[in-house]
Amino acid sequence: MKREIIANVLPEETRIAVLEDGHLAEFMIERPALGMAKLVGNIYKGRLENVLPGISSAFVNTGFEKNAYLYVTDVVSSSKDRHIEKMLKRGEDLMVQVAKEAIGTKGMKVTMDISLPGRYLIYMPKSEHVGVSKNIEDSAERDRLRRIIEEENLEGGMIVRTEAEGADEGELRSEMKYLARLWEGIQKKFEHSQSGTLIHRELGLTFQVARDLLNENANIFLVDNRDEYKDVKGFVEMLAPEFTDRVQHYTGKTPIFQAFGVDRELAHIRQQRIDLPSGGYIIIQEAESLCAIDVNTGKFIGHKSQEETVTATNLEAAEEVAKQLRIRNIGGIIVIDFIDMRRKRNQIKVVEVLEEATRNDRAKIKILPITRLGLVEMTRERRRESLLSLLSEPCTECAGSGNVLSRESMYLKLQKEILEMTQGRSEGRLQITLPPGVGDFVRERQERLEKIIKRSLTIAIDPTLPWEDYRIVID
Asked: How many CB atoms are located within 10 Å of the residue 390 CB?
């Protein structure tokens, strides 16, 4: 697979696209100047505001408008009593790290189990666990990596990332020492800082992508801003010098996202309907805590049996769903309503294709077997708001419902209001001003309406009026 990383850096926005075989696979955005800085990974000195034993949770003031949420399993304590009210006391200072950003009406989720990621390792100073990525399958290599970690004898736990496979022992030891010094500095800053203070900021978006995604699978990392390119190149020279030549400065006259077709693919990101190659389509509907996806055959009628037509549509849909979840960063509970298939082997095949299509997704995913109703339930790790939430806000006309009153409903609402205003009296003239679509509908029924309200009527059209708005003037 050919993987390209494309970075578009502007004064108030950084956008990064990951392309796989020329198609958009992942999209990230950061707008720190507009109050949309990435918070996951940041470490704060927080003040414990409240402990709620009934839900085994606590709320921590980290300096933001909303208190952060701390669940009992994310508490690090020497207490053997695992009841949260026994482990924490209101008013005490805590070192917490952001695990999930604020989503919807919920504040951000934090943990006391701090983790400091490097290129090869993740240092967890408050843990005792030493683990090796399951993607490293060679047992001898796993033993070698575990031995290096244990010989360094650092206080705390360590996770060996996939990128560490085959890494030089000296590089691994250097990174461990760097992470240990970083932790020492964070501890000192915690001691001398006030509550509600940021004491460690996670890397900016371009540097984080360079650390996590620039590896042997990435062919190139193109950056269109010269200063950012120099900074990223210097960072990679220090972090992974063997990949320095893959960081390139884009100098083309055509905007980078336009040149690589990213803008064209992003233009469809807010659409609910996604067409499939065969003629079928899927509908994606996001809610705050759940995403429902419906699969339809559309105009695809196939050439053989109905079962084969349905299965072919479902297989295409499974691949497209995996792609859209990753691009749109949809997380939480996801329910996919596949078209009913009678044969068990076809049901299993669809789930297998969905599992294979999600293999490259960096988020943790769990997929359950297909139900008797043809539903697939799955979960996808959600650490940030979905792309739709970041790029849009509720419509002022439909209040985010996606629907406005129909022409018929508007006509009847108008009729009722006129009757209430005139009290059935027939004297005087009446003028109403309506938006175009509603106005045309009412004009077609003007004679009927005049008989009902018992007075003549003048209809004016105002293109600037919102769909559900109108004005009534009685002489």
From this structure: 17
